[in-house]
Amino acid sequence: MTVELRSYIGGAWRDGVRLSDDLNPAHPSEVVARTSLAGAELAAEAVQAARSAFAAWRATPAPARGDILRKAAELLEERVESVGRDLTREEGKTLAEAIGETRRAVSILRYYAGQTLEPDGETYPSSSRVTFLFARREPVGVVSVITPWNFPIAIPAWKIAPALAYGNTVVWKPAELVPLTAVHLVQALLDAGLPPGVLNLVLGKGSEVGDILVTHPEVDAITFTGSNVVGRALQHKAIEHGKKVQLEMGGKNPAVVLADANLDVAVEQVARGAFLSAGQKCTATSRVIVERAILPEFQERLAALAQSWKLGDPLEPDTRVGPLVSEDQLQKVSSYLQLARREGGRFLAGGEATTINGEGYYVRPSIVTDLDQGSHVAQEEIFGPVAALLPAASFEEAVALANATPFGLSASLFTNNLSLALRFASEIQAGVVKINQESAGLEFQVPFGGMKDSSSGSREQGKAAREFFTQWKTVYIDQLP
Ligand SMILES: NC(=O)C1=CN([C@@H]2O[C@H](COP(=O)(O)OP(=O)(O)OC[C@H]3O[C@@H](n4cnc5c(N)ncnc54)[C@H](OP(=O)(O)O)[C@@H]3O)[C@@H](O)[C@H]2O)C=CC1
Ligand SMILES: O=C(O)CCC(=O)C(=O)O
């Protein structure tokens, strides 16, 4: 029997206005779940529910909020295999990646549970003898959380867990393509004892419920991860309505391979960055800038590795690359593969969409060379398993090429030279820098975010999350004579 999914608002599962099928991208004829999609009215109710629950949640002692997050982590950990499996079935990343991502959500919940025991303010010396002067962080209020499909449990966890830990209430709109994983995360938090109204789930289309979640007078802040087009439009609207807003968006992340690099490491890490999760990561490697001296050997080895990785059903244990998430995404990536040819590119591996046993939205790991640095394929986010190879004559030219896009999310360098590694870390325009590691993959206890067009300039995760989800209040107390 097909699972039916509903929005969760003010402590009740609520029917929406029409049904939508949640399909398995490896077997698009399989309906993983059926979603009752919310319309704008239900989204507005969700905001009101979050507002009504705010006073009590904010007054709940922070360590008690942390206890609920810790319990949710425990429950999610018990369910990690089944949640990971459902994540694979609706999103298409391999089972190992899906279970890994679910474990990451567990760790994130635990981390923010721990944060509720950390100091929440500072005392200051006052210029007056009788004044006790301190500043403390308070919750922002009602937060709209709008998340993408590519990390359907880790990204929501790294937004919702700090929002709740610091005393905010939440209205969460996951991407339409991944409602089942969203329900699993909500269920773990409810089973852990989260009170009604503190977290509200709106299963609706961004184009239909998005406006309410951004402009509603009772929304105080919006945190978003997704495309630049939607993110920037949402930012303008949010600012116009006086809301705090945080955006994490696209990348065109470079991996620079210098002539002295350990090629075994470089080839493996570049392939991981470019092709795991079928390249559908904002941190994926999509430009590989290689010093000319090693270009022939590097490209031959990378192409051989790309061709050796098994493309297939993501539930099969030896699959390295699964399908793209949807038919739309397949069309988008396929059109970039065609564009690459029109722009003079030559494929050393892949370059085409395919099916497995006649079905699924697959694209073979693809490496394209002979492109101009300014070409569309070398400049725009593709969000598929496609890496553009660009030669460089020197470290300086490689860094200049790496910086020559509007994005600035993550970047890798492969070298044994510590001085050049330090120079790269300083000169590269990216929010995350990796030396001898793939450009994707993040630890949850450190700040994450991009420079230039990749973000709104704010940072998520680690202690940095506190900046967005809290506001300072400064208190002056005078002792009376
Ligand atoms: N940086 C990243 O991590 C990601 C980048 N992308 C990039 O974006 C491209 C398109 O992917 P797509 O899923 O369409 O990304 P979107 O930016 O459209 O979606 C991200 C989230 O925003 C929601 N949304 C869409 N329109 C609105 C709106 N008007 N107001 C408020 N929320 C809205 C979506 O809802 P709904 O699902 O209902 O449309 C989803 O929850 C990809 O090919 C990739 O290049 C995509 C995902 C993640
Ligand atoms: O690289 C990662 O682990 C996370 C990437 C990410 O945040 C994204 O793709 O949206």
TrEMBL record:
It comes from the Bacteria. The keyword Oxidoreductase applies. Residues 21-475 form the Aldehyde dehydrogenase domain. InterPro entries: Ald_DH/histidinol_DH, Ald_DH_C, Ald_DH_CS_CYS, Ald_DH_CS_GLU, Ald_DH_N, Aldehyde_DH_dom. GO terms for molecular function: oxidoreductase activity, acting on the aldehyde or oxo group of donors, NAD or NADP as acceptor. The active site is at residue 248. Keywords: Oxidoreductase. The keyword Plastid does not apply. Belongs to the aldehyde dehydrogenase family. This is Putative aldehyde dehydrogenase YcbD.
